[in-house]
UniProtKB/TrEMBL annotation, chain A:
Domain Aspartate/ornithine carbamoyltransferase Asp/Orn-binding: 151-298
Residue span(s) of domain Aspartate/ornithine carbamoyltransferase carbamoyl-P binding: 2-145
Record has Oxidoreductase as a keyword: no
PROSITE patterns in the record: CARBAMOYLTRANSFERASE
Organism field: Haloactinospora alba
Binding site for carbamoyl phosphate: 54-55, 104, 132, 135, 260-261
A Gene Ontology molecular function term of the record: aspartate carbamoyltransferase activity
Known EC number: 2.1.3.2
Metabolic or biological pathway, per its Swiss-Prot or TrEMBL entry: Pyrimidine metabolism; UMP biosynthesis via de novo pathway; (S)-dihydroorotate from bicarbonate: step 2/3
Catalytic EC class: transferase
Name of the protein in question: Aspartate carbamoyltransferase
UniProtKB/TrEMBL annotation, chain B:
EC top class, as a word: transferase
GO molecular function, one term: uracil phosphoribosyltransferase activity
Gene (UniProt): pyrR
InterPro entries listed in its UniProt record: PRTase-like, PRTase_dom, PyrR, PyrR_bifunctional
Protein name: Bifunctional protein PyrR
Residue ranges annotated for the Phosphoribosyltransferase domain, each copy included: 29-173
Lineage: Bacteria, Bacillati, Actinomycetota, Actinomycetes, Streptosporangiales
Chain location of the short sequence motif PRPP-binding per the record: 122-134
Length: 308, 211
């Protein structure tokens, strides 16, 4: 049916269609009235099993700007806390006539499972360590705005690849759009399957930096780490943290991205985070435009324009 | 407007794959280059006359083909009055009332002159006036952009069959049509040639798509 479950499901044309649509929608943000009647009468549910203020608010704002009705359903304090299963929640939402469901879940594959139970469009807003396609779309959108074309762009993704759905979605989407991706991480923070991903891998950040146009710093997901993946935070910062010295190794136009939330002093220093190279706040703004585009393309017409 | 008609003819073609070719053979040109030129020149003069010199008008074309028409009108007014007239594009995709009837359309570009539209006389420009629903959507879109002093409507062709109480202030050519006929406007800027083509009468089986 019509869902957005994986960044890998998007063809080059579809991905560009989303980005172009987002670009037009971004122009509206400068207007005094930022609202369209486009999705009037449609209901979008934000089904969040994990806390994520940023992504949830972004989806909510995107849906509201297009006049959809928005229901926020968080696991805390809901029937989920009472023990309701995902399937029963899905059937409840189905009965309430949800046209689109943005789901964030701690289990990889939850979005896909949900899509088999409901008629509405399912948007994967992050499932476990699997994927986060709208984050990849907004990252790519930000790169396109800053760097122009994606073809041949050298993108380096640094940090906790193992626990990162952002990394996987970005690798797939960037590959589709013709960029070259290099993952940089300690060997302990790389998934076993990384050899099958369409990208190259390095353990040394310093050697890769001079050949990078874009550097995406991943958050170190301490809450997901049950084992010791690196000796100490200090050692991680020394080898994989982005500071002023490392930024100096980049060429003049290169940018530093971070999906947020940022732990200043861990992945990036405050100096880098506040520099003009950092796109962290731009990414948040672009997130709303990209999610509007996705909602419009999935729910706006009689049938979906993407992800079929 | 034209996007809508295009979508309809696409649906039409899908229903009967061979028709598309037939149409290009059977289509009859009702207006050709020089006539379109003359019609636009006349509309430009009418706009100037009605707005008493066009001191505070803004021309907004409805994509796709309304935009080059708005540009041409602005150039003609410039030639006559030796004063530049702001013109732009007003995309109505997000305001259509038939979005749920077809696959999601590509969002077009809205370009409003830097001075905005507050207090000005906005002349909407479209290629074909048909049901009037595009114009209604354009009025909604305008509402979100500002508060013009007045809104007027200029169209190259008025083919009738209105579904809403909407009427054009400036018309290039009134073209009484049957609902089973198609009207296609081609312009130099978008299609390489200026023409208004009246397509063949459709078979009864595909009539419903005209609505």
């Amino acid at each position: 049916m019509r869902h957005l479950l994986s960044a890998g499901d998007l063809s080059r044309d579809e991905a560009n269609h989303v980005l172009d649509t987002a670009q037009e929608l971004a122009r509206i943000s400068g207007r005094s009235v930022k609202k369209f009647p486009t999705l009037r009468g449609r209901t979008v549910v934000n089904l969040f099993y994990e806390d994520s203020t940023r992504t949830r608010t972004s989806f909510e704002l995107a849906a509201k700007r297009m006049s959809a009705d928005v229901i926020n359903f968080s696991a805390k304090g809901s029937s989920v806390a009472k023990g309701e299963s995902l399937k029963d929640t899905a059937l409840t939402l189905q009965a309430m006539g949800a046209d689109g469901i943005a789901i964030r879940h701690g289990a990889s594959g939850a979005a896909h499972r949900l899509s088999t139970w409901v008629d509405g469009a399912v948007l994967n807003a992050g499932d476990g360590t699997h994927e986060h396609p709208t984050q990849a779309l907004l990252d790519v959108f930000t790169m396109r705005e800053r760097m122009g074309s994606l073809e041949g762009l050298r993108v380096t993704i640094v940090g906790d690849v193992l626990h990162s759905r952002v990394a996987r979605s970005n690798v797939l989407l960037l590959h589709t759009l013709g960029a070259e991706v290099t993952l940089v991480a300690p060997p302990t923070l790389l998934p076993v399957s990384v050899g099958t991903w369409p990208c190259s891998v390095s353990y040394e950040l310093d050697g890769v930096l001079p050949h990078s146009d874009v550097v995406i710093m991943l958050r170190v997901q301490a809450e997901r780490m049950q084992d010791a993946f690196f000796p100490s935070a200090r050692e991680y910062i020394r080898r994989y943290g982005m500071d002023g010295e490392r930024v100096a190794k980049l060429h003049d136009d290169a940018i530093v991205m971070h999906p947020g939330p940022m732990v200043r002093g861990m992945e990036v220093t405050a100096e880098v985070a506040d520099s003009p190279r950092s796109t962290v706040t731009e990414q948040v703004t672009n997130g709303v435009s990209v999610r509007m585009a996705v909602l419009y393309l999935l729910l706006g017409g009689s049938e979906s324009a993407i992800g079929n | 407007m034209c996007a809508q008609k295009r979508a309809e003819s696409d649906a039409h073609t899908n229903a009967d794959g061979s028709r598309n070719q037939d149409r290009s053979h059977d289509a009859r040109a009702v207006l050709e280059g020089p006539e379109i030129h003359r019609a636009l020149t006349r509309i430009a003069h009418e706009i100037l006359e009605r707005t008493k010199g066009g001191g505070d008008i803004t021309l907004l074309g409805i994509p796709t083909r309304g935009v080059p028409l708005a540009k041409r009108l602005a150039e003609r007014i410039h030639r006559v009055e030796e004063r530049s007239v702001p013109w732009g594009a007003l995309d109505i995709t997000m305001y259509r009332d038939d979005l749920h009837l077809a696959p999601a359309r590509a969002v077009g570009r809205t370009e409003i002159p830097s001075d905005g539209i507050d207090g000005s006389i906005v002349v909407l420009v479209d290629d074909v006036l048909f049901s009037g629903r595009s114009v209604r959507a354009a009025l909604d879109a305008l509402n979100d952009l500002g508060r013009p002093r007045a809104v007027q409507l200029a169209t190259l062709v008025d083919r009738g069959h209105r579904q809403l109480p909407i009427r054009a202030d400036y018309v290039g050519k009134n073209l009484p049509t049957s609902l089973r006929e198609t009207v296609t406007v081609t312009l130099e800027e978008t299609d390489g040639e200026d023409a208004v083509l009246l397509g063949p009468t459709r078979s009864r089986s595909s009539q419903g798509e005209d609505q």
